[in-house]
Amino acid sequence: MKKACIVSIGNELLNGQTVDTNASWLAGRLLEKGVLTAGIWLVPDEKQRIVKAIQDASELGDLILVTGGLGPTDDDLTRDAVAAYLGVELEFHTEILRIINDFFERRGRKMAPTNRSQAYFPAGAAILDNPIGTAPGFWARKKDIDIVVMPGVPSEMKQMFTGHVLPSVEQSLLTARVVCRKLRCFGAGESDIAQKLGNLMERGRNPLINCTCGSGEIILHINAASEDAAAALEMINDDIAAIRGRLGEWVYGEDDQSLPEVVGNLLKKRHQTIVTAESCTGGLLAQMLTEIPGSSEYLLAGWVTYSNEAKIRLLGVPEKIIADFGAVSEPVAQSMAVQAAQKSGADIAIAITGIAGPDGGTDEKPVGLVYIGVLMDGVCQVRECRFSAMNRHWVRLRSALTALNYIRLRLEV
Amino acid sequence: MKKACIVSIGNELLNGQTVDTNASWLAGRLLEKGVLTAGIWLVPDEKQRIVKAIQDASELGDLILVTGGLGPTDDDLTRDAVAAYLGVELEFHTEILRIINDFFERRGRKMAPTNRSQAYFPAGAAILDNPIGTAPGFWARKKDIDIVVMPGVPSEMKQMFTGHVLPSVEQSLLTARVVCRKLRCFGAGESDIAQKLGNLMERGRNPLINCTCGSGEIILHINAASEDAAAALEMINDDIAAIRGRLGEWVYGEDDQSLPEVVGNLLKKRHQTIVTAESCTGGLLAQMLTEIPGSSEYLLAGWVTYSNEAKIRLLGVPEKIIADFGAVSEPVAQSMAVQAAQKSGADIAIAITGIAGPDGGTDEKPVGLVYIGVLMDGVCQVRECRFSAMNRHWVRLRSALTALNYIRLRLEV
């Protein structure tokens, strides 16, 4: 079975300025296809060190993925290093220079002379185009070893890997299979979920279930190993059914589905429209909903009514309600939702008002206190949430995700 | 000068389930003390691989930091591997077993028999206690090389490093200092910047300048090494002045400043207020502005006018302009900004309308076409941007950042 090694290049990876997320992402994608990663090397922008890491990697794996060091500046030495490892010269590719030149022209900019260096590649390497950046990658071979070199910018690397590398990896031979699936949960803590899952989470079990959490979301990773892909898939499907049975409405989606995507699909299915009225989340909820392609089908509009003045004048929240109860209160959340629905004619309105911090909290209304109102089918429900006041970003993110989860639960009924 | 190497151990680091943040954290703390990290190795829980990584590391550094593989289970092999590298036996420490036992007793739990393995250490090693976990670390020496072994759990590792390792590192001889600063740029490509910086970016130069990029932002990392911290700081300040001189308005901030933060500071300084009117970015710009604590001082409100209907009814964009020019057009961007300012009474209004994709593009108006309007001091300027149609997320992020940059440039005048 093919084994992979990963070499991540860049001084910034060795001085604490950048965490290398590329290697972990690549290892995860490879494992999904049944390819194990034998080792990861992080090396600085130094030619001899890059060559040495590739040599060490070639002793352990027959697929070496290299990221970084393909930029146009003098500290980008990956092309030279790989050529040295392969024992070949760098060749200039006129047509690639033209593509890089076009890349700049399309953006109305002039290509700098240094970009010329990005049109040099080790002789014999296949060039991997980079539609979203100036640094093409390349794929070279030495004996039985494939070396794939990609840019270090994560978005460019991911697109190149998914487009050019993964299809070839899939073709090549893999017999034993590891199948991975994910179940995504919201509304319960890690220990609640572990308790309900019980024996399903035993170590050494196949499928193996791991749990990761972030932003209030719990993701269950289910990995089944078998000589036979179909058998592995069946084992995983049985587990998914069992987990869904035990966790019920806590499970909101599978694999890479996000909460905004799940909510969007429910809205499309019901042909309903939605609007948002946000105070403390300041547009985050609208941004999450509109990140989903095709969201214009259901999201009509959103208000960011950050100041009291904006709540009163732009949205029409009665001044007296704010004066009587304060901007962060159940009546204000309710009024925001009702007004937003009325002004827009949407089927559903969701309103958030709260204290994101770090300032603005009091004993009575501490940082992390958030009211979420959902108006739907003529009924407005407001829930009071008290999130831990970890930091501003966290309170806002938890608020927006919790709001999405409330909509999901009401739409799923 | 002392150099460090880091070896991170654990199967989870090689299957995409865990990103190794320990190595980056350690490298950052070491650099603050003037110690450079020469390389980072990520290896699985396999004895021979751990031994080999430590051997490779010992050729490059004289301080080797090892994390992970100190747990009580069969796949925790770091103790064995380090003993093999040192050429010594493992020794059992009764007093450590008692400490581990106490750790469980204090929590009302019973120690499992497997935890006994955590009381074995390579002969001659100094034991580093772990007040918040069961796995003690240790510090061994072979010739001139120091090997420090710590748990992989980040909180335990950090406490052990800060408590036991850092003070010794500080004491040990280090006279030379490395000082790091960052300059953050927007509005130019990596190669434009490299060209303007020219000789400043030469390899081997001190200070050494590296360049990283993401989301259209370029970050210059400036590292100065000197025997004397004050001298290093002076070198860096000279470089910062030189870079600012060459790059001009491309530089928007230093170190960890973000574009929304810089814009917020400028607004506060000028006592001006701002509103947003967003179509394709769907609340992203408002969300970025309100992520900054204290943003209620200047951000009054925001509109997410995603549908044409919302642009007309909620914001007051004349229906005829949309009919004549289309929703993605210069006149609509202008009208959105003008209406938002009028309705809110804010000093500045910023409007974004564009095609984020993946659908909705035409030959005439492709995905990535975005109009950004800034109304300020009674003047509305609209700029047409053509971003690469990489993906929806990218187009939206570039749009919001570019809008922030336009505001910055107008506020800085």
Provide key terms for this protein.
Alpha-Beta Plaits, five-stranded mixed beta sheet, Molybdenum Cofactor Biosythetic Enzyme, Chain A, 26% strand, 413 residues, globular, alpha/beta, Maf protein, homodimer, 13 helices
Question: What would your notes on this structure say?
Answer:
2 copies of one chain form a homodimer. Chain A is α/β, with parallel strands linked by helices and 413 residues long. Chain A folds into 3 domains: 3-171, MoaB/Mog-like domain (Molybdenum Cofactor Biosythetic Enzyme, Chain A, 3-Layer(aba) Sandwich), CATH 3.40.980.10; 177-254, Alpha-Beta Plaits, CATH 3.30.70.2860; 259-412, CinA-like (Maf protein). In chain A, 39% of the residues lie in helices and 26% in strands. Chain A is built from 13 helices and 17 strands. Chain A has helices spanning 22-32, 47-58, 78-86, 94-106, 154-171, 190-197, 229-247, 259-270, 284-290, 308-315, 319-325, 330-344, 392-412, and strands spanning 3-9, 36-43, 63-67, 90-92, 120-122, 126-128, 137-142, 145-150, 177-186, 208-214, 217-226, 251-254, 274-278, 299-305, 348-354, 369-376, 379-386. In chain A, the strands form 4 sheets. Chain A has a 6-stranded mixed β-sheet with strand order 2-1-3-8-7-6, with helices on both faces. Chain A is globular, with a radius of gyration of 26 Å. Chains A and B meet through helix 1, strand 2, helix 2, helix 4 and helix 5 of A and helix 1, strand 2, helix 2, helix 6 and strand 10 of B. Strand 2 of chain A pairs antiparallel with strand 2 (36-43) of chain B, so a sheet runs across the interface.
